[in-house]
Every structure is written in C-alpha cells, then in structure tokens.
Amino acid sequence: MRKCALTPFLTHQKALFEATYSYEERLDSLSVHLVNPSDNSFGTAVITPRWLFVLAAATPQAAGDPILVDESLDQIVPETIQAGDIVGISVHTGNALRGYKVGRMARSRGAWVVYGGIHATLFPEEVLELGQAHAVVTGDGDIAWGKVVADCMAGKPEKIYQGGRIGGNEFLPARWDLMNPQNYMWASVQTIRGCPKHCSFCSVWRTDGQKPRQRRFQSVVDEIVALRRLGFRFIALADDNFYPVTFTDLRQAREQGNTARLEELTAIRADRFHLMEELAKLPKDMVFFTQMTMEAGEDIEFLDAMKKANIKGALVGIEAVTPEGLKAVYKDWNLSGDAMVNQLQTFKAHGVHVLGSFIFGLPTDRPSTFDFTVAMALKAGVTFAQFVMMTPFPGTVDFGRWEKEQAENPTMVGDVPITRYWLIPTAVRPKMFTPHPTMSSDEIRERTQKVWDTFYNWSAIWQRSACTPNLRSRVAFMFLSMLYRQMYAGTGISTDSARRKKSKAWARWTAHQCKKLFQAKPMPELEARSWAPDLLPSIGQAAFAGSDGAEMAGPFIVISGKQ
Ligand code: SF4
C-alpha cells in the first residue's frame, strides 16, 4: 500500500490504544460499523440496501450488533468511530470514490477498515491503496465477513479474503431486526444469484457467475414473513435474473440429447415454481417485483404463476428496439420491433407490469433512435421505463474492449485516465465516456433527457395510471413516476447544477410523501406457515386499510444494482 502522510500518526495511535487496553477490554469496547456510502442523502430511501443487513447477520456474536449506516439516508458521523472499531464498506463503481473517503476517515480515527462489494472484487489493489484498506473481501461476503471480523478482533487481519461464490443454501437471511422500518419504502429479499446470459454491458454474469444459485424457499419465505410483521408489504426480489431457465435452454438441451443438462434445467425451473407456490400462500396484500429477461413473455405458465404469487412487476432489460442495437450488446436473443411490443404486452395481459430498461449511446444509435424508442415503449404499454446512457462498467466485455483501445494513448481528465472515471470528482466527471461514431456526448445526453421528459409527461403518466384501482392510487402512481424521473433523470443525467439541486430537493420531498403510501399496518402475529387460508382475507384487509390502497402504485421503482 502507498504510505500516506498520516501513517506514522496512525501507527502511533494504534500502538497507544493497544498498550492502554488489554485484549479483553478492546473486545468489550469495539464496535462494528457497516457503511453503505453515498454522496446523495435523501433522508428516505426507496429500497433497503440488503447487503448491510446480510453482513449484520454474518457478524460474529462476540462483536455485538453492528452499527448500520446507510448514507443514502444520512451521512456517517465521524465521531461515532473509535480506535479499534471495525468498519466494513461495500463499494460499487458509482460510490467507490465516496467509499474511499469514508474508509480514509475511519482509518485516520484508528479503525480497522475492510472493503467488499463488486468494485472491491474487481479492483482489490485500488481499494487497498486509495481506500486505505486493511483488508478486502472479494466475492460473496456471507461467510468471509465473519472471519475478517474475528481476525481484526485478534489484531491480525489478512490483506485479501476470497469469499468466492457460495452455494444457494449458504445465503444468509438478513437481520431485519436492526432496520428502522420508517426509513424505507420497500424491503429487498434475494432468491437467486447469477445469470446464464452474457450481455456485453453487464458484469453480473462475471461476478455472480452464470450458474444460477437458488436459495432455499423456506428461508426466503421466513424473511418475507419477518418483513411483513414489521409492516412491509412491498418487497423487491433483488435477484440477478428471476427467470434463469428459458424455453430455448430446454429445447437446446433436448435437441443435443443432453439428459443431465435437461434434468438440471428442469429441476431449477421446478424450484422456481415451488417458490412461487409458497409466495402465493402469503398474505394477499403483499406486492413483489423482480428483474428478469424478456423471454419470460413466451412462458405463460410462468407469468401466471408470478401473478398468483403477487409478483406484480418486473424490470425487463429491453436495451434496444432494433436488431442492430441488440446485436451490439450481445442480446440478439431479445425480440425487436413489433415482436418486442407483443411480447411485452403479454406480460401485462398476464398481470405482470413491466419496467422497461433501455440503453442509449450504442454505436448503432442514430438521432431517430430516440424518438423511435420512446414510441415503442409507449406502444408496448410498459408501466414504467428507464433510459440509461451507455456506460462501460468494469468487469464487462465492453469495459475490457474500451480499456484495450485506450491503453496506448489514454484520454485524461485532470490526472485521471478516463478508464478510471469513477475516480474523477463527480462535479467534473463526464456523463459519457466512450465516443460515439456519429453523435457527441452532449447530443446523446440531451436526447436521452428529452426521452425521459416525453415518457414521463403528465398526460402520459395519467393515462398509464389507469391501471390502478382508484383515484387515490392514481395520484400515488403519478407521484412515483415523478419521483423516479427526478431521482434518475434530474440528478443522474442533467449537467445543469441548478436543475440537479432542484431535482434533489423535489425527490427528497416526494420520497417522504411516497413512504407513507407504502407503509402497511404491521402484522406482529404473522408466523411462517401459521396462517390458515380462511384467515387470509381479514388479515389482508386489515393491513390494506393501513396502506391507503397503493396496490398498483408502486412495484416499479427499481434502482438496479446491476453494473
Ligand atoms: S443484463 Fe440481465 S440478462 Fe444480461 S447478463 Fe446481466 S443480468 Fe443477465
């Protein structure tokens, strides 16, 4: 690790601490902090950062209950960190810079600093150097975290802990008892990790692997019951891909005469149905939403099972509406044009609303692509949509190609090569990084902004809100649509600082209002498998009454964790 000016002071401070207190006293007084870094604090967050509560469960009992800090609510207070404490920070590309700042602060106060998350997995050396880490966990933290904490408590952490990819039956349930339910609109539960696809802009298949790892359904249901007890009825199934086996996969295995593969795929599919059967037994006021591929649109049995299980919405990666665009991102198994429109309409016809995700800035995009995309999104009847600008995320095929192109003569922003854009201060960080063959970055950004404005204009939102059961829900739907637009388009795409500031203030206020719409009456009496079917309507109604009927209003704001 590069030595910083503070190193002698820190070494002295740590030595002093160790000389003053015995090992037992140090153990008694230390605290474990888990920090979700963020530059944007809204006071209210849409979805619970699940990893915080999972690592809380992985923290050894000897260290006591960890202190959880979600900076998307409020920034960390440095004075809460004492010498000898252990600070765990999870970083992805978007929050790495803030994460490093938090880590350096924690280290300057004499704490043990440990990083994990996708970015730390991909760049452990960077994290050790710029984040001043004592240790880095790569891969899954569910098991590795306990060992790191124990080693820090013993004063001997290793530099690298390889968490690898653990099996689905080893996934830990989260410690929801440590959450303040007032802070979040929706909770998140994971049912599966990994994705068999290989889209060029996505790192999930490389970091989480292509082999689906399914969690035991009873563990999933128990966690959901715990959340419903607390008053959460909106829950994101925070999976990489909820639909891991397609008809094409099954057909190919059959055609190849690959019996073992066919059996494996059939078993995975059967497990998905089993999980959905169990979800269907939960109180009827629950609303789940997830992420999956468009291919599920040809699987009516699957969509119907989702509807029965109250999975009312799904983020579907549409990416591009033309065959050339899909080919550019290795997603030519997706449908385009009118076939795509029909496929997406099938979701809706079977009770699953779609949040369509589109990418702009692909090499095949032309000025006409923007209007055409928004027209297709409207024609397909997607209930929500997000329009993101092409970003080469580390760990992806696109990033690897770009890094190679830049190797000889790298573009610099200040003293940072553009291929390390996450290290560029946000105020001067470009919005796009890879040059487009025919359009400037500004043109792409402005056209993308216009698409958001078109899709989320008041009249279009009002028309889409007709899917809700009553006037109050329609109003809620409109609020949510605007919140989504402000959170992403207002603060993420805009380069106008006045607009960004206004959007943040607006999003903060709207998020606070929206939170009330999602809260339901807690059901402390609910137990896993204890509800008799004839009790369900009364339980459901009691909870529904407390939630103002936002039934159809909000299974869709998904701030995707994908990179
Ligand atoms: S974008 Fe979606 S379908 Fe493609 S690899 Fe990533 S998770 Fe899988």
Write the layout of secondary structure elements.
Layout (H helix, E strand, L loop, with lengths): L6 H14 L2 H7 L2 E5 L8 E3 L2 H9 L8 E4 L15 E5 L5 H13 L3 E5 L1 H5 L1 H7 L4 E5 L4 H10 L6 E5 L19 E6 L2 E2 L10 H4 L5 E2 L2 H14 L3 E4 L9 H9 L3 H22 L6 E6 L7 H9 L2 E9 L3 H6 L8 H13 L3 E8 L6 H14 L3 E6 L7 H10 L5 E2 L2 E2 L23 H15 L2 H7 L6 H23 L3 H22 L17 H10 L18
Parallel strand pairs: 1-3, 1-4, 2-8, 4-5, 5-6, 6-7, 8-11, 11-12, 12-13, 13-14, 14-15
Antiparallel strand pairs: 9-10, 16-17
Helix pairs in contact: 9-11, 10-11, 11-12, 14-15, 15-17, 19-20
Report on this model:
The chain is an alpha/beta fold. Helices cover 43% and strands 14% of the residues. The protein contains 21 helices and 17 strands. It has helices at 7-20, 23-29, 50-58, 96-108, 118-122, 124-130, 144-153, 204-207, 217-230, 247-255, 259-280, 300-308, 323-328, 337-349, 367-380, 397-406, 441-455, 458-464, 471-493, 497-518, 536-545; strands at residues 32-36, 45-47, 67-70, 86-90, 112-116, 135-139, 160-164, 184-189, 192-193, 213-214, 234-237, 287-292, 311-319, 353-360, 384-389, 412-413, 416-417. The chain has a seven-stranded parallel sheet. The chain is globular, with a radius of gyration of 24 Å. The model is unreliable at 1-7 and 530-563 (pLDDT under 50). The structure holds iron/sulfur cluster. The site of iron/sulfur cluster has 12 residues, from helix 8.
